[in-house]
Amino acid sequence: MKDYLILLAGTPRGGIQTWKSLIRYVKNPLDCDIALLYGDIFQMPEFLLKHTKFDWQFEEPKNWKDFYLENYPNSNALDFLIKGEEYGTAGGIDKYSGSGAIVCGFKTILFNNYLDYLSDYKYIIHSRFDQYYVDYHPKLIGEDIWIPKGEDYYGVCDRHAVFSSRYSEQYFGISKFLSDKTAQENIKSKIIASESVFLEHLRYQGLENKIKRIDRLQFTSAASTDETRWRKAIYKIHFSKNLLMKYPDEFLSSIYNSLKNKKFKYFLKHPLLCINYFYLILRRKAGNLLKDKT
């Protein structure tokens, strides 16, 4: 059995260029299997399916409120997530924007149905479909939860994590925290956002001390045709085929880390990404100069 399982959960966004980077920089060098968890409202592209070992499609509810009423013992989860509707945690419930409730729902589905599969691997790489990798994913050894630096938004970044499979039950068992009103009343964060819910859940499960931050080597991407429930990507990766970045700071951080480690060799290997990196830096500096003058 292989050491790593890449678990992609959510909406199949990002496009072929993004998924090729996953195969090139994560699956092949780490010799990973891939599992896909997604709703039946999407047709999974053949490119991903041909690289996939586990195809976990489920019947996605039209309103995730129904999922919570069916799968949670009380209304605490719904009440708590709706409190953070300003920050997207209620996304998926009724007409709220964002995807927070959907993300927690996916974890509940994994917890209820697929833990036995995860136990066959040493490490789980839990990520999203829209992560574009700019360099080789590190081979991580130990019993920690590794999360890229940045994008924490009152908690800890919830877009990508690598962890020892021995923590799978705790990591995906978010229903316990969402059902515990006493725990919710005693959270440290004053803001209920997806990232703070993720951190509070890990804290509730006794896993906060296992978190280790690693340098970011990927950014959240989008194809020009992708739909979104939250922030729409507007920043182009110039000279690419309709590839966009959603959060420029992620892009800058990932390219900076790659250049820091490999310097000119990285530029020669990825000139287009580096040109976009330097262009964005110059654009920001020019913008700051104009602000200073006004």
Description:
With 294 residues, the chain is an alpha/beta fold. The chain has one domain (4-214): Spore Coat Polysaccharide Biosynthesis Protein SpsA, Chain A. Helices cover 42% and strands 17% of the residues. It is built from 13 helices and eleven strands. The chain has helices at 16-30, 46-49, 64-71, 76-83, 100-113, 115-118, 168-172, 174-178, 181-185, 194-204, 248-262, 264-269, 271-293; strands at 4-9, 33-39, 54-58, 123-127, 131-133, 145-148, 160-164, 211-214, 218-223, 235-236, 243-245. The strands form two sheets. The protein has a seven-stranded mixed sheet, covered by helices on one side. A four-stranded antiparallel sheet has the order 5-9-11-10. Helix 3 crosses helix 5 (100-113) and helix 11 (248-262) packs across helix 13. The longest helix has 23 residues, at 271-293. It is globular and about 55 Å long. The N and C termini lie far apart (62 Å). The mean pLDDT is 94.
Summarize the structure.
The protein is 42% helix and 17% strand. With 294 residues, the chain is an alpha/beta fold. A seven-stranded mixed β-sheet has the order 3-2-1-4-7-6-8, covered by helices on one side. A four-stranded antiparallel β-sheet has the order 5-9-11-10.
